[in-house]
Design brief:
About 20% of the residues lie in helices and about 25% in strands. The protein has about 210 residues and is α/β, with parallel strands linked by helices. α1 links the parallel β1 and β2. The longest helix has 15 residues.
């Protein structure tokens, strides 16, 4: 199971999180988020080890801006968290690996994901809210049983120190990794290294 820590923006905190060796780190380029990184020195991301996949998160951003930021920070992955259509997602796959996020609730229709086959590399399933993620709310994970495509997915939305143990009981062939964000913070964008260390230990034990 892969581990992604998302919503980073403080240089020293980024360095401390990288030292934990997550598989992915995420940076939010959506100014509606309290974790919006705005301007971050290129050197901060350049110093992240190559073993960690750097991911840029966008919400309904234009293609020119996305391409510019991929080039500026040398992102490996992009995560599209808005209403981006399949062809828009596919247009970046020659430059980065594409994660398409969807907000999930009890009425979510997984059939709509079929349009994204061969257009994206990964899905991310978050809790459906007006804020495009980072809400700290969970959805009913049993709904994942309705997902039957072969595209792997990250689980996001309200994963916390209180429910991280339950993640190991999700038995789905395409369950790829967890996305840790707001419930592992001291304040928006500032992660608690202590909470993350405990979560990493639990997740790695579940793999063994």
């Amino acid at each position: 199971m892969k581990i992604k820590v998302c919503g980073l923006r403080d240089p020293e905190n980024i360095k401390a999180v990288a030292a934990l060796e997550p598989d992915y780190v995420g940076f939010i380029f959506y100014n509606g988020s309290p974790r919006f990184i705005d301007e971050l020195q290129v050197e901060v991301l350049a110093n992240i080890p190559d073993t960690i996949n750097k991911t840029a998160v966008f919400v309904n951003e234009n293609a020119e801006t996305i391409n510019k930021l991929i080039d500026k920070y040398d992102f490996d992955f992009i995560q599209l968290h808005g209403n981006e259509n399949p062809d828009f997602c596919n247009s970046f796959r020659d430059k980065a690996i594409v994660i398409k996020a969807f907000g999930i609730n009890n009425d979510f229709d997984f059939e709509q994901l079929k349009a994204y086959k061969k257009k994206v590399d990964l899905f991310l399933f978050d809790t459906k809210t007006e804020s495009h993620g980072g809400s700290g709310q969970t959805f009913d994970w049993d709904i994942l049983d309705k997902y039957d495509l072969e595209i792997p997915f990250f689980l996001s939305g309200g994963i916390s120190p209180d429910n991280i143990e339950e993640v190991k009981y999700i038995n789905h062939p395409q369950f790829y990794g967890v996305d840790l964000n707001s419930k592992f913070e001291i304040s928006p964008g500032l992660k608690s290294i202590e909470k993350l260390e405990k979560a990493f230990t639990i997740i790695k034990q579940s793999i063994e």
